[in-house]
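Translate sequence into C-alpha cells.
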Amino acid sequence: KVINYFYKRYKIPTYIDQFSKNKQKLYLITPCARELNLIFILHSIEQNIKNFNVTWYICFDADVDEISDQTKNMLDSRPYINYFFVQNPDSNSGNAQRNYILDNLKIQENVLVYFLDDDNIIHHNFDNLQYMLEKSINFYIWQQDRYCWNNTFDDLKNGYTSWIDTAQWSTTLESIGKHRWEPINDYGADTTFFGKIWNGNLEKTKLIEIKLCYYNYLTGVDYGLQFRRLKRLELELELSNKKESVKNFNFPSDASLVYND
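Result follows.
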C-alpha cells in the first residue's frame, strides 16, 4: 500500500537522453536500502548533470522480490542505470554493495567514479566539476553544503586525511584499482577506503574551494529541515512533470538557505 501510494503521488519524470552525447564518463555508485529515495535521487541526477556521460550503478541490500515492480520499472526505463541485488549479513552502511559493484566493473581509462549514497542527492553545482578536470589529476576533493559545519582542507594540504565525507570527492576508476571498502562491517570504512586510495598524493589532487555536494540531503539534520527539503523536492517533481519552467525554482544554493526557507 505504501509503495502504491508513493508512486501515485510522485510521478516518474519523463526520460530524455542527455548523457550519451558527452565524452567524459562518470560512474555513480549507490548502495541502496532506502528504495523510496531513488525517485528523488534520479530526479537530481537528470536535472543537475548535463556535461557527463553518466552510468548509474545501484546495488540493493535486498532480495530481488523485496523491491517493488514500480521501482524496477522506473529503473528499467533509464538505459544509463544498472542495478543488482546483494545481501551480506556481515555488512553495514552499504560496504558489501559498493564492493560488489566495484568487483564487476572493468578498469577503463578516463572514467570518474562518484559514490552517491541513498540518503543524498546530486548537488546543483556538481556539473561544474566537468570544467575543472585535468589530465594530470586523479583526485578531486571539494567543499560540502552542510548545515552548521565548515569543512577546511588544512589537513589535506599537509598531506594527510581529515574527516572527509564520501560525497566530497571523486577519483578515477584506475586509482581505485583493487582497493575495496573494508572491513565491511565498519561504519567508518569510508574514511579508511579514501585514505588508502588517496595516500596523501597531493601532486595528483585538485582541492576545489567551492561546494559541490550536500551532506545526507534526504536525511536532514533535524525534522524541520527534513520537512522543508522534502517539500522542495515534491514541488520540483510536480513542476517537472507539468513541464513548467523551473528556472526560478531550483535546489537551494546551500544548506542554510534550505533551513531558513
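Note: The longest strand covers residues 205-214.
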